[in-house]
């Protein structure tokens, strides 16, 4: 066996079958010559009674000296009790991030999340995660990879942060499923971007104009009575869009709307007389259990966004989203002096902190009450006007 040098390797010719040429300087270091003419450097050793072989690199891509150095490193790992060939084999079989995404969606999201949340997760996976790191081996993902992905969408801070949240949940589950070591979540310590919370409340004149437009589109038939009723119910109840959109007639009782499944679980929502009048004006279709009937038989109206865009343009409020109707309901309740805890119960919030975003609106009735109270006291013991004050002449 010759010592492997560039001249020796270049002189080797391919044969009908692949064959090995071993180096005389380092035991286990050799070259594999394939029938195709490809030549790859090898490191061979025995482990557990078996001969194991590691492919180091292809001749031409690395030099003989570089291959010899790498072979020494492999043999050093073997001497420490490691098994490089098995590690490489396991790494080759390791799942990719894309595979984790699918398991995460099927075993977790589909089982535990609402349909709307499932759509958000699927969108994050398909549009942001898989294109960036889907081909990465799960065990190879590092914090810098997550930070780079997060930074890529810095111009969309809300989407960047939501994607980071999805990734963090996925990698937590990867640890539970034994796919990564405990405490190795690469999303840890990746700071989120500051988000500008957008809270839009309709003013009194805007609500009046919106009400006029809803009546107009219902009368001229440009929107169905079910679409118009949906927006009126959103305004009068403060419900989430999905709660009204999927509302069934059987859920409406003397107690209110008894919804078996909402974002926060089963929920009883009060149904004021104004909302009941909206419902009583709607025709109930025999073959459709839904209040907000759609175009397809037996289905609810799946698209309220396009009708809302038409209505808001006509009402002169193009920046108002459907969810802002819920904000408007809450802001009116707080501004009228309703306790913040009661507002939270009306909205179906499970945490007071969620409702506290409206707390600053409670200052208005307090300020008004302070003014009125001070005015009554001032009438009794008030300070004279500046024009009536005595002037001291020196």
What does it look like?
- The chain has 3 domains: 88 residues, Double Stranded RNA Binding Domain, CATH 3.30.160; 80 residues, DNA polymerase, domain 1 (Orthogonal Bundle), CATH 1.10.150; 159 residues, hpI Integrase, Chain A (Orthogonal Bundle), CATH 1.10.443.10.
- The protein has 16 helices and 7 strands.
- The chain is of the alpha+beta class and 394 residues long.
- It has a 4-stranded antiparallel β-sheet with strand order 1-2-3-4.
- Helix content is 49%, strand content 10%.
Quick summary of this structure?
By secondary structure, the protein is α+β, with helices and mostly antiparallel strands. 49% of the residues lie in helices and 10% in strands.
Features:
394 residues; alpha+beta; Double Stranded RNA Binding Domain; DNA polymerase, domain 1; hpI Integrase, Chain A; four-stranded antiparallel β-sheet; three-stranded antiparallel β-sheet; 10% strand
Summarize the SSE layout with pairings.
Blueprint: H1 6-11, E1 19-22, E2 29-33, E3 39-47, E4 50-58, H2 64-79, H3 84-93, H4 97-112, H5 115-133, H6 143-152, H7 157-176, H8 204-220, H9 225-237, H10 241-245, E5 252-253, E6 256-262, E7 265-269, H11 273-280, H12 305-315, H13 323-335, H14 340-347, H15 352-355, H16 363-381
Antiparallel strand pairs: 1-2, 2-3, 3-4, 5-6, 6-7
């Amino acid at each position: 066996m010759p010592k492997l040098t560039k001249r020796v390797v270049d002189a080797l010719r391919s044969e009908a079958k692949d064959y090995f040429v071993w180096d005389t300087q380092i035991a286990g270091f050799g070259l594999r010559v394939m029938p195709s003419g490809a030549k790859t450097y090898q490191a061979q050793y025995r482990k557990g009674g078996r001969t194991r072989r590691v492919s180091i690199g292809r001749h031409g891509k690395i030099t003989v000296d570089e291959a010899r150095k790498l072979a020494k490193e492999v043999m050093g790992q073997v001497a420490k009790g490691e098994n490089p060939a098995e590690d490489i084999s396991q790494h080759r079989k390791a799942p990719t991030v894309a595979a984790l995404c699918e398991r995460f969606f099927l075993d977790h999201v589909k089982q535990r999340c609402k349909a709307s949340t499932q759509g958000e997760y699927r969108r994050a996976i398909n549009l942001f995660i898989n294109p960036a790191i889907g081909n990465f081996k799960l065990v190879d993902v590092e914090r810098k990879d997550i930070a780079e992905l997060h930074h890529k969408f810095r111009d969309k801070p809300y989407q960047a942060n939501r994607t980071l949240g999805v990734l963090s949940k996925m990698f937590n589950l990867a640890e539970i499923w034994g796919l990564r070591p405990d405490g190795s979540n690469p999303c840890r310590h990746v700071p989120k971007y500051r988000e500008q919370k957008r809270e839009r409340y309709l003013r009194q004149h805007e609500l009046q104009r919106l009400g006029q437009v809803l009546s107009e589109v219902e009368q001229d038939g440009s929107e169905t009575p079910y679409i118009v009723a949906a927006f009126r119910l959103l305004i009068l109840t403060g419900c989430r869009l999905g709660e009204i959109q999927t509302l069934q007639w059987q859920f409406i009782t003397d107690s209110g709307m008894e919804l078996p499944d909402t974002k926060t679980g089963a929920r009883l929502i009060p149904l004021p007389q104004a909302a009941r009048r909206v419902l009583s004006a709607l025709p109930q279709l025999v073959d459709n259990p839904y209040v907000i009937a759609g175009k397809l038989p037996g289905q609810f109206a799946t698209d309220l966004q396009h009708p809302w865009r038409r209505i808001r343009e006509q009402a002169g409020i193009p920046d108002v989203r459907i969810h802002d109707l819920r904000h408007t309901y809450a802001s009116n309740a707080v501004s009228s002096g309703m306790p913040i805890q009661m507002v939270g119960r009306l909205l179906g919030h499970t945490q007071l902190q969620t409702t506290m975003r409206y707390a600053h609106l409670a200052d208005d009735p307090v300020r008004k009450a302070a003014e009125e109270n001070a005015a009554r006291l001032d009438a009794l013991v008030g300070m004279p006007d500046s024009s009536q004050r005595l002037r001291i002449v020196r």
